[in-house]
Every structure is written in C-alpha cells, then in structure tokens.
Amino acid sequence: MAHSIVMPALEMAQENGKLLAWRKKEGEAIVKGEPLLEIETDKAVVEIESPAEGILAGVKAHVGDVIPVGQTIAWIVMPGEKPPAETQPSASGRRMETKASPSSPPAAVKSSAEPSSSTARISPKARRLAKEHGIDLSRLRGTGSEGEILAEDILALVASPGSAKGTPASGALETMSSIARLMAERTTQSWTSVPHFFVVREADAGALIEAREKLGSAIEKAQGVRVTQTDLLVALAARVLVKHPRLNASWTGEGIRLNLEMNIGVAMAVNDGVVAAVIPGAQAKNLGEIAALRHDLTERARSGKLRPADIAGATFTISNLGMYKVDAFSAIINPPQAAILAVGRITDRVVPARHSSHDDDDVVERPPGRRRRARGNFSQRSGRCDTRPWEVARMILSALLR
User: Fold this and answer.
1) For the chain, which domains are there?
2) Cα–chain-centroid distance for residue 382?
3) Is residue 355 scored above 60 in pLDDT?
4) Would you say residue 97 has pLDDT above 70?
5) Mean pLDDT, rounded, for 115-144
6) Cα–Cα distance for residue pair 257/245, rounded to 1 Å
7) Distance between CA atoms of 73 and 57, rounded to whole angstroms?
8) Largest CA distance in the chain
9) What is the rounded CA–CA span in Å between residue 397 and residue 400?
10) CA 68, 334, 300, 71: dihedral to nearest 10 degrees?
11) Theoretical Cys-Cys bridge with 39: which of 15, 17, 252, 278, CB 3.0 to 4.6 Å?
12) Are 108 and 139 spatial neighbours (Cβ–Cβ below 8 Å)?
C-alpha cells in the first residue's frame, strides 16, 4: 500500500514549508522512522522521518520549493508498486511556490493585458509581506501560475534596487527572516491578547550553586554532559508545578485545560530568533536525564536539526538569561500556556538580617552578610489560572534555598 508524503503542519499558523533537503533519493529504500527530508518553517528547521517502510517514489518537490501544508510531495511504495496517479490540485488557491530567481525580480509595472490586483490571485503570505513593506500590489505582476502573486515575488521586489515601494535612497532596507518575523507576530499577539500579571522575587541561590557542585561531577561522568543552572531550574519548576496544576494549564478560549504532564519549554537562541525546545514529562525525570536531553536539544537547535516533537507541546516555559549577564527581565507568555518564568544572573549582594518572633522574642533567623542571589520574574495570565501567583513565584524561587 502506498503512503503519501505531505508537507506537514508543524504549528497552528503555518501555511507552507520550504524543502531544504531530501535525505533519500528517488528509488532508494527507506525504513519507517528514518530521516527522509528536511524542511524550514517560520519557526525552525526540522527533520521529518519516514512514516512507512518501502521505496521513495513519485517525488514532486525539489530543494528550494515552498510547498503548501497538506500537499503531496512524494510517495512511499512497496517494491514493484507504482505511485498513485497525480490528482488535480484543489481550488483553494494554495499551490507550490518555486523559489524565484534573484537575477530577475518581478516587474513592478503590469501591462494592461495582465489581471489587476483586484482579480489576480495573491497568497495570504504575499499579501501580508506586501503590507509590511508598503508595496502597492496594483503595480506588481506575479510569477505564479496565471499571474498569481507569491511571497517570493514580494521578497525579490524588496531586495531589488528601485523597488515599487519607493524606499528612500538614504538608507538600506534590512528584510526580516521568517523566524524573526514570526517572533514579532507571536510576541505582538501575546502581549495584546493575553492579560499579563508580573511577580518579581529575589532568592538566595547559594543552595542552587551547592547542588550543582555536588551533583554535577557525578552526572557529568555518567551522562557525559555538564549540568547547568537551567537544568536545575527545570527540575525545580516541574516539581512545584505538580502542586499548582492550574499554572501548568492551557487557555483554550472555551476554558482551562489542565495538563497532566509538566512539559517544560526552555528558551534557546538560534539564528535570528528564539525557539522553546521542550523537555517532556520533566516532573518524572531526574537531573541527569534533564541535563542530557537539554544538551541534545541545544545542539540540534544550533545546527537546525530540531524535530517537530522537539518544539511542540510545552505547558510551561523557562527563559534564563543569566549567562548573558542580565540581572532581571520580563518575559512574554507563549500562548496557549498560562505562565513563563524569566531568570536573571546570580550575583553577590549584601542582604540584611532576617528576624522572626517566637513567644514575643525577636529571633535572628539569618545574619546579615553577602549572599549569592538571583532574581526571577514570573509572568502569568491575569485572573485566569491561579489566584495566588505570588505564592507560586515564592515556591519556585524559594526552592533554590533547599
């Protein structure tokens, strides 16, 4: 039985994906789960595995093609079997977009015989790009079938000198990458549609440093990876979230969905953006397992080899900028999650004595002195998931004391 290979939808807002590489050639045998192709979305570069065992046949897409989600690009067939006959494309207007040649950008002025912008087809992504760059679509002739204006037409026009946009000669226009553009869109969407509630707390990080020094060497010998502060934060947050399941929830618009697993997303910097690689079921993993998985995700994120499952399903996110000497910052929630924890660097600070009263006697619980301290900024959906966000922030950050 033939199995179709389609352009997968790796995220809710994805319209298409760019084919970067085939890992197998047409006619070669492949087993289920073996890397088959590599695609680029607005969010990341991911490797797609074969859904079946057989022979790669009927390849319809080439490297560099931009392909609509759901379109068949190849088949996996049994030996001696032929791929099914090609069907006519649907009338949805979504079709494969072939990368335009940079040496011949689309003409800015259309002839009278060409269809006008009101009648010519324009892909949703092309319309969005034209709006962002202030391009007049009525002066643009598309390179797609029947004059359809594609996203590549807009990008080629922006990159060409003397474009229809009329960019002033006093400055150069730097176009955003797809990942950077999506980050801007998602950040704007979250900030304008999600009511944020911020809680900031400073905690003594001495015990965190001691735990890393005590456990780090053994884990490094056993797992071959170095334990980081982020690994400890993931382990601590996952265990605290077990006691506060509403902060590990997802907002659906119709209500709050409580997630059984604490899938912790870890913000990682990549070229032109940030991705949140996921450590699934962190509440059930030990520190060594978390460190090994985080290290593997980091390496694959930097090399653009993240898989679809690596960036999907996060229920809570941690962003740690301490390694960049950032003292504190506020993070924006990644919908549909309920909260995100932003952590700054650990620094030496002078702290006063802490007192408590027992039987009318003033008892010094902690003498004054220099302490290793860290600040955490806890962002939560206001009034929707937990009525005591300050208590949750205290528990997560105060866990550093133990």
Assistant:
1) 3-77 (2.40.50.100), 100-175 (4.10.320.10), 182-401 (3.30.559.10)
2) 23
3) no
4) no
5) 69
6) 10
7) 10
8) 94
9) 6
10) -10
11) 17
12) yes
- In residues, how long is the chain? 402
Q: What tokens does 387 get?
A: 């009525």
Residue by residue, DSSP assigns 81-129 as PPPPPPPPPPTTS---BPPPPTTSPPPSS--TTSPPTTTS-B-HHHHHH
Residue closest to 276 by CA, chosen among 308, 242, 311, 234: 311
- In 3-state terms, what secondary structure has residue 65? coil
| Percentage helix, strand, coil for the chain under 3-state DSSP, each rounded to 5 | 30, 30, 45
Cα–Cα distance between 258 and 260 in angstroms, integer?
A: 7
Residue whose tokens read 């039987």: 359
Q: DSSP per residue over 165-225, as a string? A: T---TTS---PPPHHHHHHHHHHHHHHHHS-EEEEEEEEE-HHHHHHHHHHHHHHHHHHSS
The answer on pLDDT for 307 being more than 60 is yes
* Cis amide leading into 102 (omega within 30): no
Cα–Cα distance, 52 to 77 (Å, whole number): 9
Quote the CA–CA distance of 127 and 80 in Å, as a whole number: 45
Q: Is 28 exposed, middle or buried (0-12, 13-18, 19+ CB in 10 A)?
A: exposed
Contacts of 34 (CB under 8 A, 6+ apart): 23, 24, 49, 50
**How far apart are alpha carbons 291 and 203 in whole angstroms?**
23
Distance CA 257, CA 71 (A): 32
Read off the DSSP letter of residue 259: P
The Cα–Cα gap between 23 and 17 comes to 16
205 within 8 A of 398, measured Cβ to Cβ? no
User: Tokens for 194?
Assistant: 């999600």
Packing angle, helices 287-302 and 229-243, rounded to 10? 120
The Cα–Cα gap between 206 and 401 comes to 7
